[in-house]
Amino acid sequence: MNVVEFRRAILAMQGYTPGEQPKEGGFVKLNTNENPYPPSPRVIAALQEFLASRSLALYPPPLSDAVRRKASAVYGIPEDWILVGNGSDELLDLVVRIFVDPGDRVAYPVPTYTYYRVLALLQGGVPLEIPFPEDFSLPEALVTASARLKFLCNPNSPTGTFIPPRDIERLVRDSTCPVVVDEAYVDFAPESALPLLKRYENLILVRTLSKSFSLAGLRVGFLFAHPAVVRELLKAKASYNVNILSQVGACAALEDLEYVRENIARIRSTREWFSERMRSLGFFVYPSEANFVMVRKAGVDLRFLYEALKRRKVLVRYFPEWPDALRISIGTEREMALLVHHITALLEEAHV
């Protein structure tokens, strides 16, 4: 017998495939929904000040207390309703670990963030994948589904489509299990489900500083939930899960909301300009309230287009499981104009 025996669930599953991070320079990266603009200058100053005056030899505060205080002030949520994580992915993982036993069903609409499936399978859960309707509104089958846990990414990835809080309230109210609303991209949308939080004990909201705050490299996420939920999550959390530099950077970022809002406005404006240009090239553009758009075009091999753009050192996201669409992150005005130029040239070469 082989002494190295893996769990059957691990052997049977496919892991999550992150977006490509090129090893060589010179690429225009429009494939992983990072913010094209740098973080607030206050973040850089705070990190430099810390490194000049403090030691990295000590462990960081285990509960990220200063970050919780800042987040409490920004979002109007009591500190004991907040958990800080090493990116929102860690928080999603913790939620699945404390709620899902082997054989439990985990429900979510598709297409969506494929990490939900990975997390369910890792815990021995059974993914219940419910197709979105054609207009990407809330699936009625998700509302009525019998499950141990439900996920809703809003705005959704990879489509960018948005479900209004009034529909989310119906989902939470009519569900007999916890409902996790993943609001990684909500700062680019018109409204959040945050006002619902104190009315529904089964609602869990997850946020990140990776997108609107330009801190993807620091990996900081927030979970907002009833204190009873947070207390159980703390039992499963790693001892020192958020490093000290991430905590320092997050605090500084939360102090400069004006800078963040200005970048959000620029990205939304660029998103609308780019969407219109893609429509003029004959693409269908899914209505997006995120920092990316998903596009498709009949008669075009989108895998070929993805590969051709990569040869021109422009990265967009192609999903083999959704071969008829591309997801394109919104970069700077210059980057998006360059992308339009390349796509126009490639379509002309292909006589499409």
From TrEMBL:
The modification N6-(pyridoxal phosphate)lysine is found at K211. It catalyses: L-histidinol phosphate + 2-oxoglutarate = 3-(imidazol-4-yl)-2-oxopropyl phosphate + L-glutamate. The keyword Amino-acid biosynthesis applies. GO terms for biological process: L-histidine biosynthetic process. Its EC number is 2.6.1.9. Its cofactor is pyridoxal 5'-phosphate. Transmembrane segments: none annotated. It comes from the Bacteria. Gene3D superfamilies: Aspartate Aminotransferase, domain 1, Type I PLP-dependent aspartate aminotransferase-like (Major domain). The keyword Acetylation does not apply. Keywords: Amino-acid biosynthesis, Aminotransferase, Histidine biosynthesis, Pyridoxal phosphate, Transferase. GO terms for molecular function: histidinol-phosphate transaminase activity; pyridoxal phosphate binding. Residues 28-343 form the Aminotransferase class I/classII large domain. Pathway: Amino-acid biosynthesis; L-histidine biosynthesis; L-histidine from 5-phospho-alpha-D-ribose 1-diphosphate: step 7/9. Homodimer. Belongs to the class-II pyridoxal-phosphate-dependent aminotransferase family. Histidinol-phosphate aminotransferase subfamily. This is Histidinol-phosphate aminotransferase. It comes from Candidatus Caldatribacterium californiense. The gene is hisC.
